Amino acid sequence: MAESSTILRGTVQSNRANKRLKFILGGLLIVVLIGLLISQAVSSTGAYYREVGEVLAQQNSLVSKNLRVSGNIVTESITYDAPTLTLNFKISDPKDVGKQLAIHFHGVKPDQMDREGSSAIIEGSLGSNGVVEANNLLLKCPSRYEEYEEIKVEAVK
Questions:
Q1: What domain range is 6 assigned to?
Q2: What is the pLDDT of residues 9-59, one digit of tens each?
Q3: Which of 12, 59, 69, 71 sees the fewest Cβ atoms within 10 Å?
């Protein structure tokens, strides 16, 4: 009888060891998966935006890749077809107006887009034809970047 109890004890201890091993492996798998999800989220949304000049310089390597690009809107290049919601325009590099990038956006045209000096951030992918197919179009608010003019009020005596 003593022999059978020692055999059972060995079986119980090996079952506990297997459960611990399974628990540890499962925990490591969950930690690795969470790490992969975090790194994927950061790489897809944590990218900074590029200037038009940078996109034009790296055009061949950026084809079919998601990107964010910022530039000044060339107001005379804006064409908008309201029935089909097709918006085409160009943005220029703030440092060199001659460097321009064509943008195609399907959606409603923002109200402030025709304003002279408007800037935009475009998220989308660069096509092989050199046109950015925009998914998101964000206009920068120029009033936030204007210099604050202080009004002096004289004390009334």
A1: 1-46
A2: 556 667 777 888 899 999 999 999 999 998 887 766 655 778 888 888 888
A3: 12
